[in-house]
Amino acid sequence: MEPERLFVMSDFFVKLIPEEPSYVLDGQTISKIKGLSWCGDNVTIIVNETIQFADAGGNFERVSCPFCKTDLLIGWWQDSMDEAYSIEDGFIDLDTVTPCCHKATSLHDLDYYFPQGFFTSMIEMEACYYQDVIQVPQERYTKEICRDLFEITGVEWRLLRVHI
Fold first, then answer.
1. Helices (H), the chain
2. How many separate domains does the chain show?
3. Alpha-carbon span 107 to 94, nearest angstrom
4. Rounded distance, CA 51 to CA 92, Å?
5. How far apart are the C-alpha atoms of 50 and 22, rounded to whole Å?
6. Tell me: the pLDDT tens digits for 12-24?
């Protein structure tokens, strides 16, 4: 008799967001993206009317100053997020000044580990399973995806590895 095997599954997926949070995908661009070889049934394209925050779920570890690397998560970051957010309008003004070295930046450009950021348009790519092994796009492949998106949109894209 074969021993019982226990599988604990976690959800992993990839989010792709433009480096310009207010960038909105139009219908023609979405059609071009859907025509790419990597854009299959496991891909969802989301377009919002307002800017939203895309986090990495359980991979959200810390937020640091992009200039001096000071940890910003305790208090300041959450207060800044609350100030920038409106229930009716989403995130309106992402501009901020770091509390540590008093330099101008945006909430989008803070140093997030793992990467996260703000978006109006987003592409989600669910992981798929092959022979009971999760298949998440590898580094080389995700660079190709970001390059393809840049060629179609003219905008750089940020990849978020999400773990729920």
1. 27-34, 78-84, 139-153
2. 2
3. 5
4. 7
5. 8
6. 788 999 999 999 9
